[in-house]
Design goal:
Shape: globular
Radius of gyration: 19 Å
Bound molecules: S-adenosylmethionine
Structural class: alpha/beta
Number of strands: 11
Number of domains: 1
Length: about 300
Amino acid sequence: MIEAYYKSSNNDFLLAYGDTFQLLKNFSFKFDMIFADPPYFLSNGGISLQSGKVVCVNKGDWDKGKTPEEMNEFNLEWLRLCRDKLKDNGTIWVSGTYHNIFSVANCLTKLGYKILNVITWQKTNPPINISCRFFTYSTEFIVWARKNQKVSHKYNYELMKRLNDNKQMTDVWRLPAIGRWEKSCGKHPTQKPLSLLTRIILACTDKGDWIFDPFSGSSTTGIAANLCNRKFAGIEQSEEFCAMSKARREEIEDVRQRMNLMHHIVDFKTLEANKQFSLFDDVNGNTSCEGDYGLYGDLPFDTKPE
Ligand SMILES: C[S@@+](CC[C@H](N)C(=O)[O-])C[C@H]1O[C@@H](n2cnc3c(N)ncnc32)[C@H](O)[C@@H]1O
């Protein structure tokens, strides 16, 4: 059993500090869903434009380039460890760009996962391309796969349809890149937007489900999970980002801060505008009994009382 770096008071948010390759071997919990935003291995000294300034795009040592063989080995190992942590009907979502996503898809197939969709996230406000020698990079991909070839997975079809003007939701999602409003607890160089994670979580989980993120960063997955009344466990190797995650989770203890975030999230706004959802209700239509669902039952790690 591993000790949590941070545990929320109602046990709906657990974070472990350390190396995912080591820690994943030390607990045997099974999750309903995994989201992973692994290193894309593209920190090779490139440049970009941010707020009118030329900046280096290096994200950190953890994102430094690897050979294709090293990248495959890395992806194969963490995806193998994660498959063991999924329930039989569980699904995994993995984000990437062309740098890593083909390796991820190959490894998923090799390990026996069944690929369900590849979502194209089209950023409505992408950064400009300063070299003017390529098309602007405005997309990222998220592979959605289930653990088992034969065991059926959850998909909240009707909810996804409601979010798309009563038409079937497609695999191209037009959502904004990260906003300033979601950086109130500090900056992570590759922080994902809450609107993206909320859509993913609503698509394939129910209230009270457990969601895991092996490369948590600032724990966007955990914040989106808790805003949707789901439970979260994550692993992050940087203490700085663990501290940022804790601050983000503490921020939403304050109801006004929580509402403020929810008012910015695209799918919550759509449901509220259609009068199909009050921010005090569970998005699946039940009246919220927020706070009591996380306290009981088994936890992925850290069973010790505080
Ligand atoms: C792409 S970022 C994730 C960002 C996250 N989705 C967010 O919204 O903040 C990847 C994270 O994985 C962490 N990481 C990389 N290798 C790791 C490992 N072996 N074990 C645990 N964390 C790792 C990095 O420190 C980094 O914060």
